[in-house]
Write a structure and sequence with these properties.
384 residues, alpha/beta, Nonspecific Lipid-transfer Protein, Chain A, Rossmann fold, 2 domains, seven-stranded mixed beta sheet, four-stranded mixed beta sheet, 16 helices
Length: 384
């Protein structure tokens, strides 16, 4: 391992200056569990990358972001210190996997979008509900971001504010029929149902459907859950309003989705949506696609989305930048996850903990540094 370590040290030393913007260098250390050590930059190291096995050295030597993430996930690479500080390196490593990238888009052509989505969502959602509760807020179990008025307020309060805002955005009243796209763990179903709103929640996750069905029965909510893809949903009558909390990323065909909204809404009906976003469509890390969100989903590309809205009769009512609230939400999730490390590793293994730790802290870092954006917006179907 020593010769491989020395080669890696020379490689990183040559690339160190190009890893950081001028004047913003971050000193860090590289170590092995056998005692080899090197430091890069001036001053006290902010963190250390610790290779526990030869595969950790090999992953770093590849300079491939996906391989490095997987080395951490399986324990071949450790982070000694603040993981968020170490994430500053992520933009220094390439992440080019053209075959895997293209396969994301070939699969729906071969197998159909609905069938592909159903298979993909199971890989993300079909974990025990108890795992999700280790990091989601304890009031709503909302797998969507909150609206924060202060950086230090409780996550649950920010989630309540967001759920209220979404319902107000579509003018939801007791007795209204509202479609909730992506029921998750029942945040909107329960919150709106308790206000007398008749929610139909769509999900393509069997784990989510079972959870929602039991929740509706237990709380006697005037709501329904259907194991059904949005694009195959045909209701008995049009809806008064539609809610889409963070599912636009999984509906990359904007034109078809907007046409579906028009079919599902009553004249004058409103839609509330929110999503994480990027300035370029279809850009997603290999780690996220392989281990977190498989499929041809993509972050919202706002200017492309609004161009498609302009082709429809839908009236755009508002657009708001949500990036800071999304950062605060994902940071809270990551902190919650870390507090439950021992329980998660005991029940589901260290690899699941490490995978979601990279995912959640990586999201927080992306929102904080404006590598990823987020928006909420609303639209209305004209009355004539």
């Amino acid at each position: 391992m020593e010769s491989a370590f020395n080669r890696l040290v020379r490689l990183i030393q040559r690339r160190y200056d190009s890893m950081f913007p001028a004047g913003r260098e971050v000193p860090f250390a590289l170590r092995t569990s056998s005692g080899l050590s090197a430091t890069f930059g001036r001053g006290e190291p902010a963190f250390a990358l610790v290779a526990t096995r030869a595969t950790g050295i090999a992953a770093l030597g590849s300079m491939d972001l996906s391989r490095i993430a997987e080395a951490y996930m399986c324990g071949a690479l450790e982070i000694d210190g603040d993981l968020r500080r170490a994430l500053v390196l992520r933009t220094s490593f390439p992440d080019r996997h053209p075959i895997a990238f293209l396969w994301r888009f070939v699969q729906p052509l071969l197998f159909g979008q609905v069938k592909s989505d159903t298979r993909w969502i199971a890989k993300h959602y079909d974990l025990p509900s108890e795992f999700w509760m280790t990091f989601l807020d304890d009031r709503h179990r909302c797998y969507s971001h909150g609206f924060f008025e202060r950086d230090d307020e409780p996550l649950a309060d920010a989630i309540t504010r967001k759920l209220d805002f979404a319902l107000d955005a579509i003018d939801a009243k007791p007795g209204d029929r509202v479609l909730d796209i992506g029921g998750g763990w029942g945040a909107m179903t329960e919150h709106a149902g308790r206000r007398g709103v008749h929610v139909t929640s769509l999900t393509i996750s069997q784990a989510s459907e079972q959870y929602l069905r039991e929740l509706i029965a237990r709380e006697s909510l005037p709501c329904t859950v259907l194991l059904e893809h949005l694009m195959e949903h045909v209701p008995d009558a049009p809806y008064d309003g539609i809610l889409n909390l963070g599912v636009t990323e999984h509906l990359p065909n904007y034109r078809a989705t907007l046409a579906k909204y028009l079919d599902l809404l009553k004249p004058g009906g409103k839609i509330y949506l929110d999503a994480s976003a990027d300035r370029e469509k279809h850009r997603q890390s290999t780690f996220l696609e392989k281990h977190i969100y498989p499929g041809n989903g993509t972050l919202l590309c706002l200017h492309e989305y609004l161009a498609e809205v302009a082709r429809t009769p839908l009236q755009l009512l508002h657009v708001h930048d949500d990036r800071h609230s999304y950062y605060l939400t994902t940071r809270r999730w990551a902190e919650n996850l870390d507090r439950h490390q021992e329980m998660i590793e005991r029940n589901w293994g260290p690899e699941l903990y490490r995978k979601f730790r990279l995912y959640l802290w990586g999201c927080a870092d992306s929102f904080d540094r404006n590598l990823t954006q987020a928006f909420n917006w609303s639209m209305r179907k004209p009355t004539t």
